[in-house]
Amino acid sequence: MVHWSAEEKQLIASIWGKVSVEECGAEALARLLIVYPWTQRFFDNFGNLSSPTAIIGNPKVRAHGKKVLTSFGDAIKNLENLKATYSKLSELHCEKLHVDPENFRLLGDILIIVLAAHFGKDFTPACQATWQKLVGVVAHALAHKYH
Amino acid sequence: MLTGEDKKLIQMVWEKVAGCQEDVGCETLDRMFATYPQTKTYFPHFDLHHGSDQIRGHGKKVVAALGNAVKNLDNLSQALSELSNLHAYNLRPCFVLQLLAQCFQVVLAVHMGKDYTPEMHAAVDKFMSAVAAVLAEKYR
Questions:
Q1: What is the ipTM of this complex?
Q2: Å from B54 to nearest chain A CA?
Q3: Which residues are in the Globin domain (chain B) (predicted)?
């Protein structure tokens, strides 16, 4: 079980409270597809992913980005019980979607950069440390049911 | 492989960093030690307090080396040859370079905000991977 200090919970809540799930989610997913183009293979039916501009403007990317980050919000509400929270999603990503869990780590790192760009100096080293821990734990929970 | 467009973007990013290289270096290392405590194992001889003289000095060195790499994007292997020897034979920082790259990108994002576009992000990510690959070339 992962332990979260009061300070870490505060740092998570204070950033999350100011995040636009729709904007940040869309941006994070778009950047994943742009920076690590091999991830596009998981989104064959998303239409035009032929350029950064196309990806950023793609409505399916935006919608899915929002979905992904909304799910992230569930993690934040259930910090003490992440493995259970993500049990079904983990099975889905393994059995139906066939996503290598390494990609969860990549998306986590990208989310950190999106938050850093958004919050600037307010995204302090302590914030970054806490959030990197969070994305790492989420990635781990999502990989937990893989077989 | 860095395309012509990647190289242009990397140079653009570097121009933005030019005026505050020392701060960028220091902040990158501060963030790396705070976020990935295991990286401190490579600096047992350092005062690792936030913003220490040693962190500041080393950060400056790291950014200067990256700046040199940016000036020699067509020949990273040669430009980083000495550093490659140093890292491979003496320092052997396994797994650190990727973590440093992440923290460096976070610092760029903090400083540039929206101006750190997805295209720049992709180019810098490729650049940092290329630098890490060169530095690790001679590990074995």
A1: 0.84
A2: 18
A3: 1-140
